[in-house]
Amino acid sequence: MSKLTTLDSDSQLRAQLPVQTLDLGNDLTQTLQEIVRDWTRQGTLDRLWARDAQVWTGGDEANWLDWLNAVARGREALPALSELGADLRRGGFTAALLIGMGGSSLGPEVLAKTLGAESGMLPLYIIDSTDPAQIASCEAALDIERTLFIVASKSGSTLEPDILLQYFLAKAKAALGPAAGRQFIAITDPGSKLEAFARNNSFRHIATGVPGIGGRYSVLSNFGLVPAVVMGINIEHLLTSADLMVRNCSAVTPPAQNLGVILGAVMGAAARAGRDKLTLLASPALLPFGAWVEQLVAESTGKHGLGIVPVDAEGIGMPAVYGSDRLFIDLRLEDDSDQARDQAIAALANAGNPMVTISIAAREQLAQEFFHWEMATAVAGAVLGIHPFDQPDVEAAKIQTKSLMAAYERDQILPQSPAVLVDGNLALFGAVVGNGASLESTLTKLFGQIRQGDYFVLLAYMEMNDPHMALLQSMRTLVRDKYKVATCLGFGPRFLHSTGQLYKGGPNSGVFLQITCDDDMDLPIPGRSYSFGTVKAAQALGDFQVLAERGRRALRVHVKGELETGLSVLHRTFIAALSRVDLTL
To answer: Which NCBIfam families does the UniProt entry name for this protein (predicted)?
Structure first.
């Protein structure tokens, strides 16, 4: 076991660096030491900070490294951010809604769920879905006349933020008339379509992004800082804390003491050794951080048949339910300890599973963890020999969706193949469905394709709410416990901007069950000939088609009629099918 720690810093902010402890076993420890020696001998860390693309693939990586100095830029912008906060306090708002996808929404979501709004400032709601029920639920929680809308999109042309902006702007105009633009803030890169739209519609504020910072690395830029200001979070304290991690991860700190280099080297070494299922175990108060890590790791490393599979919010099981392909990361908050949780994690380590423990003293240190993981992911990309800043396969599903939407606008129907099988109110699609089969036998066939070292994914195109989450969590746990494979859960279209890159471009070790549904209600999109329900359906179809084209083992189950009834049937049949499968692992 090796332990990395640093001296306490500003005690008032509790801004000490985290304690990072490694318990890896002999083989992985030896590989880690070799990587650290190589980085030290070859000056790789100096080259990374000098923006040498040869650290990775020699491509355009140097164009995407402005996240390295995002904290310094943020400190320079403190006066402007302070002025924005003062303006919002005078605005009479009662809540804020952030409209965004992927990196534009996941970072702010972590801040909203872990730190929350300060007294007298605005609670932050987030909408990153085209599901009509989810949009309606979000709208119902807001007083449109007193809501501040934040539209976040780097490119300014991403489909979901674009149509959600049109929807909520129309609502604001109906309530407020021509002055509705004063309820809106845009966060976007300079020269984007959204920037022009914001100016033309007299938005209250336009915050510019940095073109050299990719979306998933953008949380310490305006894409995270502006929502933090809206919530009244002390930005100066946040950036001061983050700066400690920046300094630790800089070229001044040798690789052997560099928290980001060590974590990234462990991630890369573990993946090379077959432990490519990075399983995040977070304290209850830090659980929202996992969704941000999930995107960062999956989208950065999952390409060209390689990748690290991040496993978020799976729950902690007994050692016997895990295979030999796991690397566990225990992110813990010191004052959020739980004896049962600690005992379960200790059991995993005692069983010989490699474990990294990252202990932080206060939630505000998540600002440090953002940079810590950004550096670690960049280092892991270098260890694996991949470009960690592009996302070549994300576009595939977007292109397919665009084609389907064009066909809908022409014919007023989405083109799709008929169901291979209809069992009650459940329709089944995909090559895994056999002629004359039932839902149970088809699920049995899908489960029969799971092999050692695979991972199983539920892709749910429905409202992300507690009842749906609980049922789907139960299903993934059943698979994990029977097959000893990693399991993931994604709600569409949200995951398309996150893990979608890995699922399509990473190793062909995923087994996918996509669940779609009829919408009980739908919402029109102002100025468009299609609805949100149509967009969601096209995104699901495009997603499934690309999975099939990539040779992924995938089944689609569509719930016709009442969703809760169909999900209950699916859940019962899921259990029955698992009981029939003969284990071949």
So the answer is: PRK09533.1
Determine the pLDDT at residue 583: 60
Burial class (CB in 10 A: 0-12, 13-18, 19+), 8: exposed
The whole-model pTM stands at 0.95
CA distances from 169 to 127, 133, 196, 352, 525 (A): 14, 19, 15, 55, 11
**What contacts 539, CB < 8 A, 6 or more positions away?**
130, 397, 401, 461, 492, 493, 496
CA-to-CA dists, residue 459 to 312, 331, 490, 577, angstroms: 14, 26, 5, 19
Residues of the chain with pLDDT under 70: 1-15, 434-436, 582-585
Q: Distance between CA atoms of 485 and 168, rounded to whole angstroms?
A: 42
What's the pLDDT score for residue 436? Answer: 65
pLDDT tens digit string along 450-463? 999 999 999 999 99
In angstroms, how far is CA 422 from the centroid of its own chain?
A: 33
Cβ atoms within 10 Å, residue 106: 29
Stated as kind and residue range, the H or E segment containing 412 is none
CA pair distance 269, 560, nearest whole angstrom: 46
On the question of a common fold for 2-8+22-50+254-384 and 394-580, the answer reads: yes
Q: At 385, which amino acid appears?
A: G
Query: Per-domain residue ranges for the chain?
Result: 2-8+22-50+254-384, 69-233, 394-580
Name the helix (H) or strand (E) containing 247. helix 235-248
CB 108 within 8 A of CB 513: no
Strand duo 455-460 + 486-491: pairing: parallel
Nearest CA to 142 out of 127, 121, 161, 158 is that of 127
First-to-last CA distance in the chain? 31
C-alpha span between 522 and 533 (Å, rounded)? 6
CATH number (3.30.70.20, 3.10.50.40, 3.30.160.20, 3.40.50.10490) of 394-580 reads 3.40.50.10490
Q: For the chain, how big is the Rg over CA atoms in Å? A: 23
pLDDT of residue 580: 84
Q: Domain 2-8+22-50+254-384's class?
A: alpha beta
Q: In the chain, what is the greatest distance between 2 CA atoms, to the nearest angstrom?
A: 68
Distance (Å) of CA 233 to CA 130, 179, 224, 242? 29, 28, 11, 14
- pLDDT given at position 336: 85
Going from the C-alpha of 263 to that of each of 130, 215, 237, 259, 269, the distances in angstroms are 35, 22, 25, 6, 10
Q: Is 318 exposed, middle or buried (0-12, 13-18, 19+ CB in 10 A)?
A: exposed
CA angle (112, 161, 562) in 5-degree steps: 85
Both tokens of 414, joined, read: 């989405």
Give me the amino acid identity at 217: Y
What angle, 0 to 180 degrees and rounded to 10, lies between the N-to-C axes of helices 222-231 and 78-89? 40
Nearest CA to 15 out of 275, 367, 315 is that of: 367
Type and span of the H or E element at 12: none
